[in-house]
TrEMBL record:
<dbReference type="InterPro" id="IPR050982">
    <property type="entry name" value="Auxin_biosynth/cation_transpt"/>
</dbReference>
<keyword id="KW-0503">Monooxygenase</keyword>
<dbReference type="GO" id="GO:0004499">
    <property type="term" value="F:N,N-dimethylaniline monooxygenase activity"/>
</dbReference>
<dbReference type="Pfam" id="PF00743">
    <property type="entry name" value="FMO-like"/>
</dbReference>
<protein>
    <recommendedName>
        <fullName>Flavin-containing monooxygenase</fullName>
        <ecNumber>1.-.-.-</ecNumber>
    </recommendedName>
</protein>
<keyword id="KW-0274">FAD</keyword>
<dbReference type="GO" id="GO:0050660">
    <property type="term" value="F:flavin adenine dinucleotide binding"/>
</dbReference>
<dbReference type="GO" id="GO:0050661">
    <property type="term" value="F:NADP binding"/>
</dbReference>
<keyword id="KW-0521">NADP</keyword>
<dbReference type="GO" id="GO:0009851">
    <property type="term" value="P:auxin biosynthetic process"/>
</dbReference>
<keyword id="KW-0560">Oxidoreductase</keyword>
<comment type="similarity">
    <text>Belongs to the FMO family.</text>
</comment>
<dbReference type="GO" id="GO:0103075">
    <property type="term" value="F:indole-3-pyruvate monooxygenase activity"/>
</dbReference>
<dbReference type="InterPro" id="IPR020946">
    <property type="entry name" value="Flavin_mOase-like"/>
</dbReference>
<keyword id="KW-0285">Flavoprotein</keyword>
<keyword id="KW-0670">Pyruvate</keyword>
<dbReference type="InterPro" id="IPR036188">
    <property type="entry name" value="FAD/NAD-bd_sf"/>
</dbReference>
Length: 455
């Protein structure tokens, strides 16, 4: 299996959006030898149930509808397959995990050790490093799809969903790229799917957040969001300002500095930065373990002491810490601490300059809140992402219309067969936990309904 992963990884490096429609030999072997885990019958079921709806048509589904084919949507699809429940999976892009394919930089690695990032029912290959690369993660997802016969419907964007008392009525916009050579927009057709179960798996990071900053429209240089950043290579010889010091801002800055780009970072708020590892042990694993025995405030004190030993006082280099500790803050607000992979060392050595918040943009530069004016060629906004649920889901009891997240933290189940997969702010670990609970819950009501019909 591991050798097989390496092979696809190579292929995907050249053809990242290609998906083979056949099962790999390794997977077939595994399915034959381990029918409990990979049942060909269940796979056949899952793949034949995605009814494409005719133009202007309405399809009433027997099973659940999943919106979004990122890791959360795929995990739900795999688990439903194993429970013999037919589903339909809709994705707005032309590939699965579009965030990982299209909106991440080339050198990205998983932030957490691989055992916390596996999807249900399938391990990462043993040959993968502790922190798999973005490319390895994509290969894993591709293999996951094949192993469970997951066939999403691509280029179908969900634009509205509403409960009519019996079904979730989900409308999609299908953009067919015709005449793209002339730059014309494609044809659109609207379809409707109806299902008793709606799984929202559109992600916490569905849309980039681009804040309106004073004078930004006067700036004559290039402005881009970090989701469009791929590598520092193309910025060599330029002066680049990265706005934001979350995981993305810190890693983009590091990548730029590693490419010898003249890099600066604007830090508006305080934030926790922790070393990714402490004496070879992942800080995340250590925190999880400590939290089993100790109060969160004590764990925070230990983590901050270790961070101080390893990274020093981050306030002195322009990144002050919040008054609340990292784990408590995560519990209270969902804000994840940054796991440092080398940015702090680059700041200390002067390769990355840190500035305070931006007061205003000028034609060729930026004025910071300390009054300093600096010129820049490029500004990269590492200003985060938001959920897009409020734009299309007509429901406000379970999902907040403001944040696009469930109103109560860690909630995965709403009323009338509505579910949220991947909104617990716990990364891929949370995705797996949600998917498992959702699939089990749907299995119960699905079996009740169809048992009643059969008897
Ligand atoms: C730069 C970066 C690095 C990260 N690294 C890690 C990490 O190392 N470990 C970790 O655990 N987490 C990490 N995360 C968090 C990561 O986003 C999640 O763990 C994971 O991708 C969540 O999967 P998801 O399926 O919930 O959402 P997504 O991966 O965002 O997938 C959602 C899918 O829904 C589709 N979609 C959205 N709206 C619609 C619509 N209206 N109609 C149809 N389809 C739609 C999207 O196109 C997308 O394919 C990272 C996030 C970022 C931004």
């Amino acid at each position: 299996m591991d050798h097989h992963f390496t092979e696809i990884e190579g292929k995907m490096a050249h053809e990242p959006l290609a998906h083979s429609s056949t099962f790999s030999d390794e997977t077939k072997d595994k399915m034959e030898h381990d029918s409990l885990v990979y049942s060909p019958r269940s796979i056949a079921r899952a793949t034949t149930t995605g009814i494409p709806v005719g133009d202007q048509g309405v399809a009433v589904l027997r099973g659940p509808l999943i919106v979004g084919a990122g890791p959360a949507g795929l995990a739900c699809a795999a688990l439903l397959t194993m429970l013999y429940i037919p589903y339909v999976l809709l994705e707005r892009d032309v590939c699965v995990a579009s965030m990982w394919h299209r909106r991440t930089y080339r050198r990205l690695c998983l932030h957490l050790p691989k055992r916390y990032c596996e999807l249900p029912l399938m391990h990462f290959p043993r040959t993968y490093p502790t922190y798999p690369t973005r490319q390895q993660f994509l290969v894993y997802l591709n293999e996951y799809m094949r192993a469970f016969g997951i066939r999403p419907f691509f280029s179908l964007e969900v634009v509205a969903a509403e409960y009519n008392g019996e079904y979730w009525c989900v409308r999609t916009k299908d953009v067919i790229p015709t005449g793209t050579l002339n730059g014309q927009s494609g044809e659109e057709s609207i379809r409707e799917y109806r299902s008793k179960w709606l799984i929202v798996a559109t992600g916490e990071n569905a849309e980039p957040v681009v804040p309106d900053m004073p004078g930004i429209h006067n700036f004559k240089g290039q402005v881009m969001h970090s989701c469009d950043y791929r590598s520092g290579e193309s910025f060599q010889g330029k002066k680049v300002l990265v706005v934001g010091c979350g995981n993305s801002g810190m890693e983009v800055s590091l990548d730029l500095a590693n490419h010898n780009v003249h890099t600066s970072m604007a830090v508006r708020r305080s934030g926790h930065v922790l070393p990714r590892e402490v004496m070879g042990i992942s800080t995340f694993s250590l925190s999880v373990w400590l939290l089993k025995f100790l109060r969160v405030q004590i764990v925070d004190r230990i983590l901050l002491l270790l961070a101080w030993f390893i990274l020093g006082d981050t306030a002195q280099i322009g990144i002050p810490r919040p008054s609340m500790g990292p784990m408590e803050l995560k519990q209270v607000s969902g804000k994840t601490p940054v796991l440092d992979v080398g940015t702090i060392a680059q700041i200390k050595s002067g390769n990355i300059k840190v500035f305070p918040a931006i007061r205003s943009f000028q034609e060729y530069g930026v004025e910071f809140t300390n009054g300093r004016i600096e010129s820049f060629d490029v500004v990269i906004l590492a200003t985060g992402y938001k959920s897009n649920v409020p734009y299309w889901l007509k429901e406000n009891e379970f999902f907040s219309q403001q944040s696009g997240f469930p109103n109560k933290p860690n909630e995965w189940k709403g009323k009338d067969g509505l579910y949220a997969a991947g909104f617990s702010r716990r990364g891929l670990l949370g995705v797996s936990m949600d998917a498992t609970k959702i699939a089990e819950d749907i299995a119960q009501s699905y079996n009740n309904i169809y048992k009643l019909q059969r008897s």
